[in-house]
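--- STAGE predict ---
source: upstream dedup step, 1 unique chain passed
mode: sequence only
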Amino acid sequence: MLPEIKKILYPTDLSDSARHAFGYAASFAQRYGATITIMHVIEELSENTSMLLTSMLGEARWQEVRDRNREDFADMIRETIERFCRDMAREHAEATVAVKEILVQQGRAVKTITEEAEKGGYDLVVMGTHGQGGIADAVMGSTARRVTRRSSVPVMVVRLPK
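--- STAGE serialize ---
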């Protein structure tokens, strides 16, 4: 039995490689009549950084600054993604793509993406990779590679052409 692709999760860091991957997500969406959910993950500060800022500002002040900045940053990211969607609609005018929603979440990228892919009932994750390769990729591992390893949902990783 052939798998149905009706829901596509497209995580983006708004990089050139992510922009390139959108064309693939749009192609799948058009071909299979699927919807796309665009997702951006705002990485959390490390525990050490958070503790340092808490000691410098105090717990209440740090919480206030963090909450206000989180909301402002999420709004800014959402606006950037909406602009990105308009740009992609112009670039891929031949594709009638249904962007179902835009998610801006805070957390660890790999964990947040894989959890959303599973709980959201997505059929495919399409994401770009920077493809740095070599030692940097072996030591740290790219987000795309770690999502591919940990996701129970199929992942298509798109490399930016040379």
